[in-house]
Amino acid sequence: DAKTTQPNSMESNEEEPVHLPCNHSTISGTDYIHWYRQLPSQGPEYVIHGLTSNVNNRMASLAIAEDRKSSTLILHRATLRDAAVYYCILRMRFGAGTRLTVKP
Amino acid sequence: DAGITQSPRHKVTETGTPVTLRCHQTENHRYMYWYRQDPGHGLRLIHYSYGVKDTDKGEVSDGYSVSRSKTEDFLLTLESATSSQTSVYFCAISDTLVAGGGETQYFGPGTRLLVL
Q1: pLDDT for position B2
Q2: Which residues of chain A are within 8 Å of residue B102 when distances are taken between CB atoms?
Q3: Among A19, A39, A53, B12, which residue is least crowded by beta carbons within 10 Å?
């Protein structure tokens, strides 16, 4: 089964960019890379997804390595409301994710 | 926000009692899912449904059953609750089956279940 590896936790300062890495070395050619986040006491919410090309939406950007074995979620200006657990997912299998702390 | 509600939001029950959790959607999505979330495990799929009366097992289905008699409702039943089923349960919906493609899931707010 395709697996993802993420750091357990990261810290950021408010209004600075945040780069959340994810390794997925066993990804298959047709697997999309999804990112979800989970705010405290809430269900996960969709952030972004992509297959090969970098993707941008109103929430974030997704940078996918050329060999697709890793990707990076980019929050361009972190706010306190971005503090959450961020999940990098293949085939809707959730791992433990990265807990992002945003400091004022 | 996708129209997904879960009930109850919190429940305390005793070992051996039956428990039913309800997920209700107003989006008319074909696919519905039940996950459980435990510390250190992320979310794990219990069961999913691909239509009325059509369901299938996920990776942690033992001890759980589901039913879907209407498009909008998906029920999760613990026939005889055990302490190992203490968890947070999330319902999700999607337009197309989540299978590694570009599908997006929408999650409900969760039900916190404590089995004593």
Answers
A1: 65
A2: 32, 49, 51
A3: A53
